[in-house]
Design brief:
The protein is α+β, with helices and mostly antiparallel strands and 273 residues long. It folds into 2 domains: 173 residues, Trna Endonuclease, Chain: A, domain 1 (3-Layer(aba) Sandwich); 82 residues. Helix content is 29%, strand content 26%. It has 9 helices and 15 strands. The strands form 4 sheets. The protein has a 5-stranded mixed sheet. Strands 2, 3, 4, 8 and 9 form a 5-stranded antiparallel sheet that branches. A 3-stranded antiparallel sheet has the order 13-15-14. Strand 10 and strand 11 form a beta hairpin. Helix 4 packs across helix 6. The longest helix is centred in the middle third of the chain and has 17 residues.
């Protein structure tokens, strides 16, 4: 579609790395890690499996029962707590997933939009060596997106300290060794989160008593160029107010497309995915 090609971030074909602002300052700290040929044997990962914990050297990570593991930490809340933990229900997995901050919750929503088939919160503890000694790090998420694994940390750009960057560098090294992708989510591209937040309000399954899905797809499919504004498409249905809610639903399910890089409003161009 021409409109999809012109969109900054077409919602129906976008990938996670198009939505986020990544921190990559850890790349310059790789020299601060103790690597060498034997590092996959010296560094280790600890996972909660069953009723206890088990450790594997990085070289043996292929043997870890990843999908049977549990979070390394719990997600509890108490008065006067600085961070905001909780549980987010993901439609893609049908389960709740823990988060330790609102920024982590936002990433879970984005992973839901990306149809992540599995997400592990606080998946393992990484024990690694650096030139000044030893340290450890628990990444925030390990997600299965498409056919690949994606290790993710979340930290707003302005809150990244040098000690954090060193831990991110170690996590990136491990992800590379395992054939996973690795990203530090430091923020969102303009307008992406506000649009995703709105779309996510219609992600739960509902009964379509007025067959709005068929109405909307037939209307836009019969339009020249298969593109209409949000308000034009809604007004072309039998009940425009219900049509609006269902446009949002179809945008979430990627049956329709919109530019995630612009505010969602009546004049937003909607196209058939």
């Amino acid at each position: 579609m021409d409109e999809a090609a012109r969109a900054k971030i077409p919602s129906d074909s976008s990938h996670l790395d198009q939505l986020i602002m990544e921190y990559k300052g850890d790349a310059g700290l790789r020299d601060g890690l103790r690597l060498g040929d034997s590092w996959p044997r010296r560094w280790s990962s600890t996972w909660r499996v069953g009723a206890g914990e088990a450790s594997w050297p990085i070289r043996d990570m292929a043997h870890v029962p990843v999908l049977a593991s549990r979070p390394m930490r719990g997600f509890t809340w108490r008065a006067k707590q600085r961070h905001r933990p909780g549980l987010e229900v993901m439609a893609a997995t049908g389960r709740t997933h823990g988060f330790e901050s609102l920024e982590e919750m936002r990433l879970l929503v984005a992973l839901d939009f990306m149809r992540a088939s599995e997400v592990l919160s606080q998946p393992f503890r990484l024990d690694f060596e650096h030139v000044h000694g030893q340290s450890w790090h628990i990444p925030d998420f390990l997600a299965m997106v498409g056919s690949g694994m994606w290790l993710l940390d979340v930290r707003p750009m302005e809150l990244v300290k040098e000690e954090d960057a060193l831990k991110f560098a170690a996590a990136r090294e491990v992800a590379t060794a395992c054939g996973w992708r690795y990203s530090v989510v430091a923020g969102w591209r303009p307008h992406v989160w506000s649009v995703l937040d709105h779309l996510s309000s219609r992600r739960r399954p509902v009964r379509d008593l007025l067959d709005m899905r068929t109405q909307l797809l037939n209307v836009i499919g019969g339009q020249e160029g298969r593109v209409m504004t949000f308000s034009e498409l809604a007004n072309a249905t039998s009940v425009p107010s219900v049509g609006r809610a269902n446009i949002v639903r179809l945008l979430w399910h990627r049956e329709l497309g919109v530019d995630l890089g612009s505010p969602l409003r009546d004049s937003s161009l909607i196209w058939e995915a």
